[in-house]
């Protein structure tokens, strides 16, 4: 009997392992994709997210199964072009700001995505008939509506809900060009109340839905000495009264909303703060009881989901690039984003076929103030980026290479000094860049590699160099990759080149190869 019991236990274990391998697992995206807003149009899902000071901005992603996503567009190339902070001009920057949480909608054949900016004090509404390849019309409201959600009601009215703690609602004109005068009201006086009185972060991140005639409002709240928590309010009329309750309190997975599948399954899309890799998306199954959405399995976030397995983040979210372009290819694939507004006169993939050329055009005092750092997301549980760069045309004082970008950044690069060059690995602690190790360089081509380990919040990075692309040598030391609020973003791989003494030099990146 004992042997039989062991046999059946093993059968069940192997069956479960086989099942798990063919199903999606949380997190569904192990990379920085926060503040999601998801819609379904027929059997296709679209998602917008926050990338703040990166450009182009407000990425639009597409999926057929809620798990495997591909970036297909951005709402804008630059938010504004005459702002010193957005341009990294005059010693200013916009780290951690730019544009924040977006709201994605589809109504009467038109897609809408809106976002707001504390930098400019404005709200931006973009619209298009072709969300994947179309250009966007842009409307600007001269107020920054914090963490707003735009909602198209069945009666033709269009609302915007926003706020923190005290939530407000206002009607918009039919073309979304402006708000209707004298329609602003307090929607919920204290939306944090279901989580108690001792609140560290008041309820925000509003997303409004209508299901079977009832209104549901999702928010995040953070009780002091507690965790990030989902708050759900329900009402029969949009004007209220609103009844609220805690929707989920597990792992700090919170902020998002509701989505259904063509077959009638419901999920809540949420995200979790996960250290240096950033804020990572989760899906939580939803059941309906007494007209309330019940999130999770026994109020817990499951590891396995009844959805197709992930095929990985490559090539839809991140990807390698050999910088070879065919006739009709875009200069840069959508996986790339610039740190702040780029200067498009100082980079090219056409001047030398098969290479990305980064040219210097001004003197910069530091890496984080340098123009034209080209970035992609790091991702978990582990990720590696490798590059080959030609440095023969650098000028005295130039610095170029591969970075792990956040406030406490690390990098490896070539520094040109008069008639010589050296490989330098730099670590930043408490805003102070420190050269940990440097090695003389006597050749014009050099290979660099950056490794990240985000497993179990290890949050470590390590740099390597190679003279031949085969033998890799560790340089400096392992560094910590802490998530910091001033940058408010997961670490980014970055290609950089900037001048500290004179302009006109350039470097050519042969490739950027990424792997997990």
Automatic annotation (TrEMBL):
Belongs to the glycosyl hydrolase 43 family. Keywords: Glycosidase, Hydrolase, Signal. One of its GO terms (biological process) is carbohydrate metabolic process. Residues 321-515 form the Beta-xylosidase C-terminal Concanavalin A-like domain. The active site is at 35 (proton acceptor), 204 (proton donor). This is Beta-xylosidase. One of its GO terms (molecular function) is hydrolase activity, hydrolyzing O-glycosyl compounds. Coiled coil: none annotated. It comes from Flavobacterium defluvii.
């Amino acid at each position: 009997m004992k042997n039989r019991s062991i046999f059946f236990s093993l059968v069940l274990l192997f069956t479960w392992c086989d099942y798990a391998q063919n199903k999606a697992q949380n997190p569904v995206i192990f990379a920085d994709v926060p503040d999601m807003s998801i819609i379904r149009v027929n059997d296709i899902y679209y998602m917008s997210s926050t990338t703040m000071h990166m450009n182009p901005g407000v990425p639009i992603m597409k999926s057929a199964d809620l798990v495997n996503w591909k970036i297909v567009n951005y709402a804008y190339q630059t938010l504004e072009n005459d702002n010193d902070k957005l341009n990294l001009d005059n010693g200013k920057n916009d780290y951690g700001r730019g544009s924040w949480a977006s709201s994605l909608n589809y109504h009467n054949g038109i897609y809408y995505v809106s976002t707001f900016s504390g930098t400019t004090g404005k709200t931006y509404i973009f619209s298009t008939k072709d969300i994947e390849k179309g250009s966007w019309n842009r409307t600007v409201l001269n107020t920054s509506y914090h963490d707003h959600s735009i909602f198209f009601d069945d009666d033709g009215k269009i609302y915007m809900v926003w706020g923190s703690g005290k939530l407000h609602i206002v009607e918009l004109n039919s073309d979304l060009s402006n708000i209707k005068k004298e329609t602003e009201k307090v929607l919920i006086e204290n939306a944090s109340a279901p989580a108690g009185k001792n609140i560290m972060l008041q309820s925000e991140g509003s997303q409004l839905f209508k299901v079977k005639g009832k209104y549901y409002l999702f928010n995040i709240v953070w009780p002091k000495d507690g965790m990030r928590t989902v708050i759900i309010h329900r009402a029969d009329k949009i004007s209220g009264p609103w009844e609220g309750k805690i929707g989920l309190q597990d792992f700090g997975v919170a902020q998002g909303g509701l989505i259904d599948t063509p077959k009638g399954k419901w999920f809540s899309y949420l995200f979790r703060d996960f250290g240096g890799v950033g804020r990572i998306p989760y899906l939580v199954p939803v059941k309906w009881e007494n007209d309330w959405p019940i999130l999770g399995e026994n109020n817990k976030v499951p590891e396995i989901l009844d959805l197709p397995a992930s095929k990985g983040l490559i090539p839809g979210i991140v990807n390698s690039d050999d910088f070879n372009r065919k006739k009709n290819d875009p200069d840069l694939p959508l996986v790339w984003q610039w740190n702040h507004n780029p200067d498009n006169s100082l980079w090219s993939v056409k001047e030398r076929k098969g290479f990305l050329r980064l040219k210097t055009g001004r003197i910069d005092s530091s890496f984080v103030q340098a123009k034209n750092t080209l970035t992609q997301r790091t991702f978990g549980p582990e990720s590696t980026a490798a590059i080959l760069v030609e440095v023969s045309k650098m000028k005295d004082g130039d610095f170029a290479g591969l970075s792990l970008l956040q406030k406490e950044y690390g990098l490896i690069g070539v520094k040109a000094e008069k008639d010589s060059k050296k490989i330098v690995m730099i670590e930043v602690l408490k805003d102070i860049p420190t050269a940990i190790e440097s090695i003389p360089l006597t050749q014009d081509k050099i290979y660099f590699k950056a490794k990240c380990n985000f497993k179990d919040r290890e949050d470590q990075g390590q740099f390597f160099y190679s003279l031949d692309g085969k033998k890799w040598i560790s340089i400096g030391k392992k560094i910590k990759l802490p998530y910091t609020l001033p940058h408010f973003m997961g670490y980014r791989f970055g290609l950089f080149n900037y001048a500290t003494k004179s302009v006109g030099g350039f470097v050519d990146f042969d490739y950027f190869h990424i792997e997990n």
